[in-house]
Batch of 3 targets.
Target 1
Amino acid sequence: MLTIALPKGRVLEELIPLFAKGGYSFPSEWFTSSRKLVFTLPEQGFTLFLAKPMDVPTYVEYGVADLGIVGKDVLLEAAREVYELLDLRISPCRLAVAGKPGAEPALYPRVATKYPRIAERYFKERGQQVEVIFLNGSVELAPLTGLAERIVDIVSTGKTLRENGLVELERITEVTARLIANQVSYRLKREAIQTLAERLGKAVEGEVSA
């Protein structure tokens, strides 16, 4: 049995049909009409559990899960010791710096973000001194209230930025969902993990497994 940590939310919705293309079927209603968090699928050889996206790499690093699926943004922020096996090419978006259009940059600007590690590294690599302020959510509010001049956040369509009078200033990196593995599990369960990765890889390329 492989234990797989899956992220709650939009990634999971796109993941279910990708697994189906890879030949792995499980009832999607289990994830939409139930508060249950752990699902055992002996016919597929899986135990699946749902976690917050930011927690998935932690479960994988500590071996509670053999595998996990999580966005590249979370991998960069969490910096956990895991193997990244496959780009699943779902839930595409980007990490970006945003702020008010035409605003004069401060000498030492404050940057609000849910990704402090990524933000600090990004500005340090560019020789820019900033003060990073961690926020749990609604980071678009920071420039509107004067808490920060800029934000670092996930951008998909840019609609949320536009609705709040903000613009994308700099693009940091592209983001998609990734398949990750626990380092010990990868050695002990290598055949099962590689089989899953290969089948999902074919599904990503558009090949449907029988």
Note: The CA atoms of residues 27 and 33 lie 10 Å apart.
Target 2
Amino acid sequence: MTQFTPTTSTETRNADLAALILRVSTGGLFVAHALMKIMVFTPAGTASYFESLGLPGFLAYLTIAAELVGGALLILGVATRWIALALAAELLGAAILGHGGNGFFFNNEGGGWEYPVFWAVTLVALSLLGNGAYALGKRD
């Protein structure tokens, strides 16, 4: 029979650092992607792109808001588990609806689904880690 062994302080500290690194890097990437949609492609241009995929244009504005606010909340470490899962769902939608027909590799024309799926998996791992100790939100 396997006996439960509590984690050591080193394991806890490593998990807290892993959560911090994943939160800040992933949150920063989301903020950067939102800013690209705002400053480079423009919100109206992003909405037009969504419409070219057969999606309602208003989803572009929701996507921009989710990436900007969600990214900031990840960086701060607020509601990490829920924000990471919501953003993973957004990325799976992007993989299927935006990149699904372009093949696997992201360097394919139009970008394949490899990158958004990898990012979604990273977010699921982050949701399992939670905020960690180095966050504004309570440790979960």
Note: Residues 130 and 140 are 6 Å apart (CA to CA).
Target 3
Amino acid sequence: MTTEPTSLDGPLHGLRVLELSRVLAGPWASQMLGDLGADVIKVEQPGQGDDTRRWGPPFLPDGSRDSAYYLCANRNKRSIAIDIARPEGADLVRKLAERSDIVIENFRVGALARYGLDYESLRAIRPDVIYCSVTGFGQDGPEANRGGYDFLIQGMSGVMSVTGRPDGEPGEGPLKTGIPISDLSTGLYATISILAALNHRYRTGEGQYIDVALLDSQVALLANQASGWLNGGVEPKRMGNAHTLITPYQDFTCADGDIMIAVGNDRQFAKLCDVLGVPDLATDPRFAESGERSANRADLFAVIKPIIAGRTSADLLEALDAAKLPCGKVNTVPEILAHPQIEARGLIHELTRDDGTPVKFLGFPGKLSRSPATYRRVPPRSAQHTAEVLGAELGLDKDEIAALLSSGIVADRL
């Protein structure tokens, strides 16, 4: 279903976000707010910029040496470089905060208080500000003062204990996910929390403080694995690509490569048995119901794996698809980015830097029919908008900006 949008500004148009964060979780949250129309001002360290600018290769070939990693999380932003350790720099940030609806920061617990940039200090000048702190372990608890990194959190949270090949199989052992899932999920939870706080402010006029932690966010994603332990006393184990409760629901090897088959119920299992030419399996007491199939998966696989191994992937996928069974191939990243479905959904976009360098990116996946996401600004060079923001937003004249630049309190683009 499609309808013509009524706004091309985005649903958050008119809101300003002041970003005092770097790397991924905070920038991921602020980028989503920017995609939805908010004006995002990213404050970076003079001469350094966001850490991820140097996390390469690959880098953009435009002389900026900005990495592809940085580009994935920083579109729809303006970049300004301010030395917040100097009183004059901190004062500039406070003036920007006074004009901002949302502040996102990911400094260590208590670090911004020494500069007068903590929530209590900014609430004094902007009472309805929504202030979101992103840390590894949260603002309290015995681990609060520790630094948090995605890999560390994946291991501590338990997610690595349920990811990887089972004990006794080649390649056994815990594995991290192939994407920084702890950072990304924290950015998503931060965005959800900020939007909830915005609605609260619209109803009451009150701002509020939001405490989002990588560890909390990753543990929350344990979902069914945690519920099985909390409610049933069952400790989850690594299952490789198999499912703990549903069978067959994993990868299988065909004559020419691997495919995925995801059978979610007994009706689908009966259809699979028909496709594989073994309809009697669907009424075998060992396999007829989901629980029995999982308990007897070794016996089931002894029958169906050789059959699947004798079929080509294209032939079997065509037959499974005709039977309306969930199936597919294991795509590489280049393959899925070139997939007709991704093209049809319009997920890949391109913006151009002022020197003509193209930047491609994956857009916001939600399709809002009346106020869709928009892509207005290419990921900026470090400090690209320093003069623009100081002039247009804080009303400083050219001489005042020049004095700040010469003193090193602020910096122009690297």
Note: Residues 16-221+342-411 form a domain with the Rossmann fold fold (CATH 3.40.50.10540).
